[in-house]
Amino acid sequence: MRLVIARCSVDYDGRLSAHLPLAPRLIMVKADGCVAIHADGGAYKPLNWMNAPNRLVEEEGRWVVTNPKGETLTITLEEVLHDSAHELGLDPGLQKDGVEAHLQELLAADPNTIADGLVLVRREFPTDIGPVDLLCRDGDGRAIAVEVKRRGDIDGVEQLARYLERLERDPTLRPVRGIFVAQQIKPQAKVLAADRGIDCVEVDYDELRGIESNVLKLF
Question: Which domain holds residue 49?
Answer without folding.
Answer: 2-85
